[in-house]
Amino acid sequence: MASNFWIKTLPILAFALFAFFFQATLGEITCEHLDEDACAYAVSSVAKRCVLEKHVKKSGEEEYTCGTSEIEADKIKNWIETDQCIKSCGLDRKSFGISSDSLLESGFTKMLCSPQCYKSCPNVIDLYFNLAAGEGVFLPKLCEAQRANTRRGMTEIRSSSLAAPGPASTGVKFLGVAPAMPPF
């Protein structure tokens, strides 16, 4: 009887100890403690996005620091994006902020919507999903149009056919519909 208890309990205990030591090894991510090579596209342990900031000293020398933004990641925390995702998605770790204008660049959108990025880099997709949504664009539709025809996809986003109409153009009042969730 006692040996049966240990046979069932030992794997659970081993997993719990592994998880504890694994978390202790990784620690919690604080944006201000990251160097410039890990900052961009990282998310702190409290789900705040990290941003690379450039400061110019009085001497004219540039200094880079990592700071915490007020923007929260939806379902991701304690995350430093991999170099493979940065490359697959066409991003640059030395970037100082992102813009929805990049979604109009067919080369960037092609890389963002590629299977290597779209299906493997949930942090990047979450970030750009929210950025696109802020512009009234549904990222999965944009990527679908991108895969169908690059030129047509860019024409559609520019003509706002992928964008949701604003309340003034429809006369419909906001009904409290929940925002769409990223596709992962």
Automatic annotation (TrEMBL):
Keywords: Signal. Coiled coil: none annotated. Residues 1-27 form the signal peptide. The keyword Ribonucleoprotein does not apply. This is PAR1 protein. The lineage of its organism: Eukaryota, Viridiplantae, Streptophyta, Embryophyta, Tracheophyta.
